[in-house]
Design goal:
Layout lengths: L1 H30 L4 E9 L2 E2 L8 E5 L2 E3 L1 E8 L2 E7 L9 E8 L5 H14 L5 E5 L4 E3 L4 H4 L2 H19 L1 H22 L1 H6 L16 E2 L2 E2 L8 H18 L4 H12 L4 E9 L2 E5 L1 H10 L4 H14 L7 H10 L2 E8 L9 E5 L2 H13 L4 E4 L2 H13 E7 L10 E8 L5 E4 L2 E3 L2
Parallel strand pairs: 7-8, 7-12, 12-14, 14-16
Antiparallel strand pairs: 1-2, 1-17, 1-19, 3-4, 3-18, 5-6, 5-17, 8-9, 10-11, 13-15, 18-20
């Protein structure tokens, strides 16, 4: 009995402490005061507007007007002008993250690196380079020890090597798909002649076509394979390619959390090379469907190819946008476009429009730059110039509650039709 009384007393004490904690938490939520920093870029056309004052800015949070406490004009890392109703200590150090999702190293990519190192990077900047192979961090004293030319050469070497090794599987799969798709395209042309020579007891669907070289692509490796085997092999290659380009939402979110607490301004420059996959011309696939109507296995294999062509990336884009906006990371998406190969019987279809839409939305939600061009040096220069000048706008949210909800920010310039870029908002937590 005494033991039960003691246990009951402990439980009551525990409840009392827990109740007090909740009460204290509620009190802290009601009295908590936070300040929100919003990097803002204002443009008229492509020209950055650098003569705005505190009174020019209007800030709304979830549609509610807020009082702007301070505005700082920043160029590169220097605060050029400040207006303060309340004093803040802006952190203008710079953290650069360069992501390279590329299949080949080009001279233009080298030009982009040269411009960045020679014209942008200065002592005190932090630089992290991420390739498909490794992550590289520029050591703190490197700019004081090595010449910029040495740094450029090292970076070029890293990108050249990692692009060659890291994308070797991707290139091999695409080359194999081109050869196989061409073999299938050529086979249908010679089908009539082949069926005339079919010997007794041989099914037309099992004829192995022997066109060995078409448009420079060897198809001899598929000699001896039946039509349904070729189609199955092609579907397997499509699956492998899709696995290589798979994007995991978890990794997206983990990265935003990783650099959220990093001091200073954070810039991500994503170099992404447009992808193409060799698709068998739909007209040819329809010919196969017409010829092999009595072969369920071939009909099934062809139908599966159409399904693969329509596959989509399953990402919660809104959640990702909010996570990166909350982390105050500026994402700049540099979409490197290039013309497709022209091969008879094959369509080199763009296969990265889904990824493009995700990164474009992320850039927009973080106040970053997004554009496409075959010239990666031009893209990088434009993005860097867009990010070099900005305002830091501070406000204290009215009736702030630490409720974990996402608060949407809208910054305007009063009475002006300027283009205003800034992060989407933040989580109140």
């Amino acid at each position: 009995m005494k033991k039960l009384i003691i246990i009951a007393a402990v439980i009551i004490l525990g409840l009392s402490v827990f109740s007090q904690q909740i009460s204290d938490q509620k009190l802290s939520e009601e009295t908590m005061v936070i300040n929100v920093e919003v990097p803002v870029r204002v443009f008229q056309g492509n020209r950055f507007i650098d003569d705005l004052t505190l009174n020019d800015f209007e800030v709304l949070e979830d549609g509610v007007p807020q009082r702007v406490e301070a505005v700082y004009l920043v160029k590169k890392r220097s605060i050029e002008r400040r207006e303060e109703n309340k004093r803040f200590a802006p952190e203008t150090s710079r953290n650069f993250y360069l992501f390279f999702e590329i299949n080949e190293y080009t001279a233009k990519l080298g030009d982009a690196i040269e411009y960045f190192v020679h014209d942008i990077l200065v002592p005190g900047d932090n630089l992290i380079v991420i390739t498909s192979m490794k992550t590289y961090k520029l050591k703190g004293k490197t700019l004081e020890v090595l010449s910029k030319e040495d740094i450029v050469n090292q970076l070029k070497g890293i990108l050249r090597r990692d692009a060659m090794i890291g994308s070797s599987e991707y290139r091999d799969i695409v080359d194999d798909m081109v050869s196989l798709a061409k073999a299938l395209s050529s086979a249908i042309q010679s089908f009539g002649a082949a069926t005339e020579e079919t010997t007794e007891g041989t099914e037309a669907g099992n004829i192995a076509f022997t066109t060995r070289y078409v448009d420079g692509f060897s198809t001899g490796q598929y000699e001896g394979m039946s039509i349904d085997e070729q189609l199955t092999r092609y579907a397997d290659l499509l699956g492998r390619l899709d696995n290589i380009r798979n994007i995991e939402q978890k990794k997206f979110l983990e990265f935003s959390d990783l650099i959220k607490g990093k001091e200073g301004q954070k810039y991500i420059f994503m170099f992404y090379e447009k992808e193409y996959i060799p698709q068998i011309d739909p007209k040819i696939l329809n010919q196969y469907l017409a010829i092999f109507q009595d072969r369920p296995n071939i009909i099934h294999a062809i139908s599966g190819l159409f399904d693969f062509y329509r596959r989509e990336i399953n990402l919660d884009v809104e959640r990702i946008k909010q996570a990166y906006a909350d982390s105050s990371i500026s994402i700049h998406f540099l979409y490197i476009s290039r013309p497709p190969q022209h091969i008879y019987g094959i369509r080199m279809e763009e296969h990265s429009e889904d990824i493009f839409s995700v990164f474009h939305e992320m850039a927009k939600a973080t106040g970053g730059y997004s554009s496409s061009s075959a010239n990666s040096a031009f893209l990088f220069k434009q993005a860097l110039e867009a990010s070099e000048n900005y305002y830091l706008v501070y406000y204290t949210p009215q009736n702030y509650k630490n409720d974990g909800k996402f608060k949407e920010i809208k910054v305007k310039v009063k009475d002006k039709e300027y283009k205003v870029e800034h992060r989407l908002g933040y989580f109140a937590r």
